[in-house]
Amino acid sequence: MSRRRRPAATPRADALARVGDRWTLLVVAALLDGPLRFNELQAQLDGIAPNVLSARLKTLAEQALVLTQAYSERPPRFVYELSESGRELAGALRLLADWGARTGGGEPYRHEACGTALEARWWCPSCEQVVDDPADDGEVVHV
User: How far apart are CA 89 and CA 19, in angstroms?
Assistant: First the structure.
């Protein structure tokens, strides 16, 4: 029986449905530095089983987050790289890494010039204005 995904009710649910599986964001993070072959990816992701890595890459390619380029036909072998859409996940990964560092006893990202811990803010480029907490005052609407 095939598993069908229900349409996501919110943008957050949609994002988690697309990249929320175990290992998926780590695969994306490994590809942020550039294209890698399967064995190179597996070496960077200590503990991932080959079948799991293969499944994650297939799903990411189906969602157009990863591009594949064949470099051998027999046996079929590919180089994997992030698409533009996949590279957009870098900001989310940076925020998750910072959260993990702060809540796990690690060191948060810091401003190199002064050493102050950095904070993420919502920014409106049209108004050139920081929107502090979109959940509190209703200033941010998802359309």
Answer: 10
How far is the C-alpha of 101 from the C-alpha of 20, rounded, in Å?
A: 19
Are residues 32 and 41 in contact, defined by beta-carbon separation less than 8 angstroms?
A: no
**CATH architecture of residue range(s) 1-113:** Orthogonal Bundle (1.10)
Q: Rounded to whole angstroms, how far apart are CA atoms 126 and 38?
A: 41
Tokens of 71: 């470099």
Rounded to the nearest 5 percent, the helix, strand and coil shares of the chain are 40, 15, 45
Q: For the chain (length 143 residues), average pLDDT per consecutive 10?
A: 63 88 94 96 96 96 96 92 95 88 86 89 86 62 53
Amino acid at 32: L
What's the Rg (C-alpha) of the chain?
A: 18
Residues 6+ apart with CB under 8 A from 73: none
Per-domain residue ranges for the chain? Answer: 1-113
The answer to whether 56 and 27 are in contact (CB under 8 A) is yes
Rounded to an integer, what is the distance from CA 122 to the centroid of its chain? 18
